[in-house]
Amino acid sequence: MKKLFVLLFISATIFNYGQSNQILDFKAGYSPQTVYNQTTINSSDYEVTYSGSETFLETLKKNQVPNPTAIKSIMTIEIVSKTGKTDKEGTFPITIEYLKAVDGNGRTIIPSGTLLYGKTSETTLPKMDSIVAKDMEESMKNVIFQTVQSTFSQLVMPQKKLKIGESFVQESPLTLPIAGINIEMVITTVYKLKSMNSKNAFFDISQTYTMKMSDTRFDTSGSGIGNGDLIYDIPNHFMAENNLKMDFNLDLKDTDFSIQLKSKSEFKQTSQISKNK
């Protein structure tokens, strides 16, 4: 589910909008000469139950795989993104620095000081071009770089004006590797503008998860839902807080085995925005 969190973490940072007569004008993109300090906390509970032939179950025992297998994970990430001055082409530099990235036991996931460099504009999403991380293996650098860049490339948001009560929809692909099998899904997220005041805009979020498997070797079924809320800081044209709770169930069957997955996850992100002088 890490890609989902990474996916959820970046999508919550890229809305710009204006206000006129209770209308929000959404335009995806960062602002030049701005600093975004963000904290993201993800927690997940998984339960995987296996069934199947005696040979399959015996293999699980030999590999010391509990049945059912219960997994709990917590991840805390603190980053700071900084943008620079706009050039004559309308683009400006962006850096993303990891200040803290640890699991529930305090173990480091991504070393502090890891930096990604790229370019962006007010109308396009960031395109990262390099990563710098002291004492990190090249393979790990490539994983972080490719994950961040591929996630940005999936987050093309519609430019749409919204009145209170109106909504817009975003679809995002998701691939989960489970037991050596890539589970393919589509996440459909609905953002509904609930209310506004002079400082904040308030959104309700609802999600549905739909299976979209290209691997026909397995009989799969699954579904999920997510619900939450989003608060936007209007003067800074950016998200102030994002909360989401998600439930997902999956059944996968083959000739010799079947897998049932149940998961519950929570996501929370807060941001502080200031000008980059």
- Give the strand tally: 15
Percentage of residues assigned to helices = 10-25%
Q: Decide which structural class fits the backbone.
A: mainly beta
Q: Judging from the principal axes of the Cα atoms, what is the shape?
A: globular
Strand order within the widest sheet? 8-7-6-5-4-15-14-13-12-11-10
Q: Stretches where pLDDT falls below 50 for ≥5 residues?
A: none
Q: With helices defined by DSSP (H or I, 4 residues minimum), what is the helix count?
A: 3
**H/E element sequence:** HEEEEHEEEEHEEEEEEE
How does the major sheet shape up? 11 strands, antiparallel
Structural domain count? 1
- Mean of all residue-level pLDDT scores: 85
The portion of residues forming beta strands comes to over 45%
The radius of gyration is 20 Å
Tell me the span between the first and last alpha carbons: 37 Å
Give a quick set of tags describing it.
eleven-stranded antiparallel β-sheet, mainly beta, 277 residues, two-stranded antiparallel ribbon
Topology:
Elements (H helix, E strand, L loop, with lengths): L1 H10 L3 E2 L6 E3 L1 E2 L5 E19 L1 H9 L6 E15 L7 E13 L11 E7 L5 E6 L5 H16 L7 E3 L3 E12 L2 E16 L3 E12 L7 E15 L4 E16 L3 E19 L2
Antiparallel strand pairs: 1-3, 2-9, 4-5, 4-15, 5-6, 6-7, 7-8, 10-11, 11-12, 12-13, 13-14, 14-15
Describe this protein's structure.
- This protein is mainly β and 277 residues long.
- It has one domain.
- It is built from three helices and 15 strands.
- An eleven-stranded antiparallel beta sheet has the order 8-7-6-5-4-15-14-13-12-11-10.
- Strand 12 (200-211) and strand 13 (219-233) form a beta hairpin.
- The two termini are 37 Å apart.
